[in-house]
């Protein structure tokens, strides 16, 4: 006899596996967390605060698939409309060249996976690898200047550091 819950979980996992956002594949660990309902801000945000240096990590929203796509598309629109420099984001497609400055996010090679009301974001940066994106955060210097900093070399490392994965 087939377990209906297991069959349903397998169907959900297959749906996520086929999912590309911004033509970028989601890391397997993120797929697992999303499909199991465990992709959410940890209750104890101390590790998250230490890692990201965000003032208010308790307000971070860990995004679902539709919101990851929506926030990522919004970042692309900001660049298209000429506002990218305010957020340290740019587009390799629009400029016709690679974005090599590590403090600037290439919106064509990134996915926004968490946001808060202070416009701070956690992103997957695929510039180095489609299979193992690094995890970066926006850091606001002197209140207005934004740059991106690496907080984990892989999504797995990030998930472990904040306690979502062992």
Nutshell version of this structure?
By secondary structure, the protein is of the alpha+beta class. The chain has helices at 4-17, 28-36, 46-52, 65-80, 84-87, 92-95, 155-161, and strands at residues 20-21, 24-25, 61-62, 89-90, 105-106, 110-115, 121-125, 134-141, 145-152.
Explain what this protein looks like in three dimensions.
The protein has 166 residues and is an alpha+beta fold. It has one domain (4-161). 37% of the residues lie in helices and 22% in strands. It is built from 7 helices and 9 strands. The strands form 3 sheets. It has a 5-stranded antiparallel sheet. A two-stranded antiparallel ribbon has the order 1-2. Helix 6 (92-95) links the parallel strand 4 (89-90) and strand 5. Helix 1 crosses helix 2. The longest helix is centred in the middle third of the chain and has 16 residues, at 65-80. It is globular, with a radius of gyration of 16 Å.
Helices, strands, pairings?
Blueprint: H1 4-17, E1 20-21, E2 24-25, H2 28-36, H3 46-52, E3 61-62, H4 65-80, H5 84-87, E4 89-90, H6 92-95, E5 105-106, E6 110-115, E7 121-125, E8 134-141, E9 145-152, H7 155-161
Parallel strand pairs: 4-5
Antiparallel strand pairs: 1-2, 3-6, 6-7, 7-8, 8-9
Helix pairs in contact: 1-2
Keywords:
166 residues, alpha+beta, two-stranded antiparallel ribbon
Structural class: alpha+beta
As an assembly, this protein is single chain
Fraction in helix:
25-40%
The end-to-end distance, rounded to whole angstroms, is 32 Å
Main β-sheet, in a few words? 5 strands, antiparallel
Computed over alpha carbons, the radius of gyration is 16 Å
Strand arrangement in the largest pleated sheet: 3-6-7-8-9
Strand residue percentage: 15-25%
What overall geometry do the principal axes of the alpha carbons give?
globular
How many individual domains? 1
Could you list the spans in which at least 5 consecutive residues all have pLDDT below 50?
none
Total beta strand runs = 9
Mean pLDDT level: 88
If helices are DSSP runs of H or I spanning 4 or more residues, what is the number of helices?
A: 7
């Amino acid at each position: 006899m087939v377990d209906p819950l297991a069959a349903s979980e397998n169907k959900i996992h297959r749906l996520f596996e086929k999912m590309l956002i911004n033509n970028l594949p989601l890391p397997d660990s993120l797929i697992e967390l999303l499909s199991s309902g465990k992709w959410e801000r940890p209750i104890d945000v101390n590790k998250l605060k230490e890692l990201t240096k965000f003032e208010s990590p308790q307000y971070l929203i860990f995004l679902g698939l539709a919101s990851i796509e929506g926030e990522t598309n919004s970042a692309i629109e900001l660049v298209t409309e000429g506002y990218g420099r305010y957020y340290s984001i740019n587009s390799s497609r629009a400029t016709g060249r690679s974005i090599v400055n590590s403090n600037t996010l290439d919106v064509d090679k990134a996915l926004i996976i968490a946001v808060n009301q202070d416009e701070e974001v956690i992103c997957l940066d695929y510039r180095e690898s489609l299979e193992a994106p690094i995890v970066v955060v926006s850091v606001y210097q002197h209140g207005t200047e934004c740059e991106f900093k690496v907080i984990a070399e892989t999504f797995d490392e990030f998930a472990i550091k904040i306690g979502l994965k062992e």
